[in-house]
Each structure stands twice: as C-alpha cells, then as structure tokens.
Amino acid sequence: MAYEQLKLDNQVCFRLYAVARLIIQGYQPFLSKLGITYTQYLVLMLLWEHDEMPVNDIAKRLLLETNTMTPLIKRMEADGIVVRKKDEKDARKSIVCLTPKGRSIEAEAANVPLCLSRELREAGLTEKTVMDIVPSLDEIIDKMCKREKQK
Amino acid sequence: MAYEQLKLDNQVCFRLYAVARLIIQGYQPFLSKLGITYTQYLVLMLLWEHDEMPVNDIAKRLLLETNTMTPLIKRMEADGIVVRKKDEKDARKSIVCLTPKGRSIEAEAANVPLCLSRELREAGLTEKTVMDIVPSLDEIIDKMCKREKQK
DNA sequence: TTTCAATTGTTCGTATGCCATGTATTATGC
DNA sequence: GCATAATACATGGCATACGAACAATTGAAA
Predict the structure, then answer these.
(1) Does residue B148 lie within 7 Å of nucleic acid chain D, judged by its CB?
(2) Are residues B49 and A8, on separate chains, in Cβ contact within 8 Å?
(3) H/E element holding B94?
(4) Do A49 and A61 contact (CB within 8 A), yes or no?
(5) What is the mean pLDDT of residues B98-108?
(6) CA distance B77 to B84
(7) A40 and A89 co-located in one domain
(8) What is the band of A1 on the pLDDT scale with cuts at 50, 70, 90?
(9) What is the nearest CA distance from A15 to chain B, expressed in angstroms?
(10) What is the average pLDDT value for chain A, to the nearest integer?
(11) What is the pLDDT of residues B112-135, one digit of tens each?
C-alpha cells in the first residue's frame, strides 16, 4: 500500500487550508476588539469602499454563496453595523448599507493590517515570503472561477 | 477616507482563504462519491499512513483543535469507517483506528489526487503554478506555528 | 506521597460554508 | 401580453472551526 499521492505532506490544498486558518487566527485578537469576525471584516472592507451593495455583489466578490451571506448580514444587522433596504428598481435585490456605527469601525480597523504585518514579522516572516505567492494565488482564483462558470 | 490597506484586493489572506475553498470545492465531487468530506479525507490520509492514532496527534498534524476532532471522529465512527478505543497505557487518550471499511476506501481514493490534477489542468493551470507556492506556504506554517507556541 | 499543575478529550455555544429547496420578482421568447 | 425561464434572496439541514468551560487522568514538585 502506501500511496505516495495520499500522504498529507504531499497535499498542496491542505497547506493552503492550514495557512488561511493560521492567518485568520492571527487576525482574530485584533478583530475581536472591534467586535467583528474575519468574514464580517471582509464584508466591511467592501462596504467601506462602496457602501450600498446588493447581497449578490458582495457574495460574488467574496466568492461565497448568497446563503452564506444572508445569515452573516443578519448578524451584522443585529449588531447594528449594517442595515438592509430594498432596491427600488429591482424588488428582488436586498441592498446592504453601512450604519454610522459600521462606518465608524473603518478608522479603528485602519491599523489592523499593520498589526498583522507586525505579527508576521515577529513570527520571522518577511514581507517578500508572503507577497511572493500572490501572483500564483490570483492566477488560481481566476482560472478556477472561470472553470466553474463554464460548467 | 479610503484606506489602501483596507481594500479587499490588497489582502493576501483573503486570497489564501478563497483558493483553499475553491480547491476543496474541486475535491468535493470526487470525495462525495467515496462518502467522505474533505476534512474526513485529511484524517483518513493520516490513518492510512499510520492507523491507530490518538485524537490529539491527529489534531496536531491537521493544525485543528481537539474540539473540532471529537465530533468529526464521531461522525466517521457513525459511518463505520473508524472506531475509537481507549489507550491502555494512558486512559486519557482515545485512539482512532480504521475499520475494514475505512481501510477499503484507500484504494478508491488513490486516484483522487489525479482527478484533482486533471481538474486544475483543465482549468488552465500548470503543475508549476501550483507547486511554486509550496515552499512559501511551508515556511509560513512553520513560523506561525512556532510563534503560537511561544505565546 | 500528596497536592497541584498539565494533558487529553468532551460538551456547549456561536459563526461560518454549502447543498437543496422554496419564494418573489424580473427578464425573455413567442 | 403571457407563459416560462432566469435571477435574487431566504430557509433548512449538515459539517466544520474555534473559544470557553469541564471532567478524567497523569505528571511533577514539595
């Protein structure tokens, strides 16, 4: 037995999955001070750039399903950082908007990326090690998404 | 406003998180034929190499918490692919063992990595693009884990 | 050896993710 | 103009993840 291709050490996906979780865990202490989760942080980053986004647009940008978004948005709404309103031109759409509270978190969050950079540096990682993988990741995302659509 | 560092497009972690999910989704159709999930696949890869592993060892190798493992193992046990037995030398430990059914999945799973390779190739990705990021990922995992421990 | 700390799992609660399905609304073909 | 398909969300169900708290057991120090 012992299929080489079935050894954990030979799995690229496991590494990706592990690194993603490790870094998200690195964010956690800083985000919890702001009262938000990592996924909520992603949603907020979009809204801070645009404000007023339909659920579907947010989902597409984050590569998540709308049925992941709905409960997420509801929790954010319950926390008072966003509200939903109906689109007047298209009654199917539910538009997510920042509340003043949601908007106020932006300034507090502004130093989070810096905190993370310091965290990585203190772990002994260079900016280069981390940034080097970005082009490959972008290519994988691009091609995998196109592959999905052609199905 | 508009903090550059708070734009989604500037986030490495989001890319990692997205790629991990996209690839796991790529595994899904093949794994569901075997009746297992991606996380269960990871556990099985370890057991196919060793058989007889304490919950804690599995958790450490997968960089997951034991409280994630317990329900996971229970579901696998309910599906008849593993069983748990008490360690005789250390009564705190719960050792996870493959059942014949769990062992039989290995041969079926042997071609899963190949299916994934084909999937990536058909998406237009080269082996190189994907393998290029492995050294960086390994370095990040190594350093982040050490950083965690020193806390 | 006896008390106290550390280790190992488990349980509980909360937040994702995603499949399948359902509902409302809009777009489209005829 | 109308039947039908497509779109946008929401709901329900299941499987992770992880923090917090707890029970059982072992290790270690006094």
Answers:
(1) no
(2) yes
(3) strand B94-98
(4) no
(5) 97
(6) 8
(7) yes
(8) low
(9) 6
(10) 95
(11) 999 999 999 999 999 999 999 999
Q: Does a structural domain hold residue A70?
A: yes
Closest Cβ–Cβ partner in A18, A131, A143 for B125:
A143
Give pTM, 2 decimals. Answer: 0.95
Chain A residues whose beta carbon lies within 8 Å of the beta carbon of residue B1: 48, 106
- A88-112: average pLDDT: 96
The residue with tokens 């949603």 is A43
Is residue A119 in some structural domain? yes
Dist CA B121 CA A143 (whole Å): 10
- Chain B residues lying within 8 Å of A31, measured CB to CB: none
CA distance B76 to chain A (A): 18
Query: What is the rounded CA–CA span in Å between residue A92 and residue B131?
Result: 43
Full domain range(s) for residue A137 = 111-145
- pLDDT of B149 > 80? The answer is no
